[in-house]
Amino acid sequence: MGNPSWYVPVMLGLMLLGLLWVVTFYITQQEYPVAAWGQWNLGAGFALMMAGFVMTTRWK
Questions:
Q1: Which of 4, 12, 17, 32 is at a distance of 20 to 30 A from 45, taking alpha carbons?
Q2: Residue 21 class from Cβ within 10 Å (0-12 exposed, 13-18 middle, 19+ buried)?
Q3: Angle at alpha carbon of residue 57, lines to 53 and 60, rounded to 5°
Q4: Closest CA relative to residue 53, chosen from 24, 16, 21
Q5: Which positions, given as ranges, span the membrane (predicted)?
Q6: At 31, is the pLDDT very low, low, confident or very high (cuts 50, 70, 90)?
Q7: Is residue 2 part of a domain?
Q8: Average pLDDT of 31-45?
């Protein structure tokens, strides 16, 4: 039995969202997406990417 139809779009979406988060952080000279978080924006971006990566281990 395979994964539900929403699984792959969510998996890819998380990885892309994390990548965009990190790229936005660097392009805006560390002011966006959330200025108050400072360097923790990198952690948020990488956490999103890792969540997508962990989902790849369950992909059938």
A1: 4
A2: buried
A3: 125
A4: 16
A5: 6-28, 40-59
A6: confident
A7: no
A8: 92
Residue 1 domain-assigned (yes or no): no
Measure the CA angle with vertex 25, ends 41 and 57; round to 5°. Answer: 60
pLDDT confidence of residue 57: 93
Q: Give the chain's end-to-end CA distance (angstroms, integer).
A: 8
Contact predicate 43/2, CB 8 Å: no
Q: Work out how many domains the chain is built from and give that number.
A: 1
Helix axes 40-56, 7-27, angle to 10 degrees: 160
Q: What is the pTM of this model?
A: 0.88
**Interatomic CA distance for residues 27 and 41, integer angstroms:** 13
Q: Is 1 helix (H, G, I), strand (E, B) or coil?
A: coil
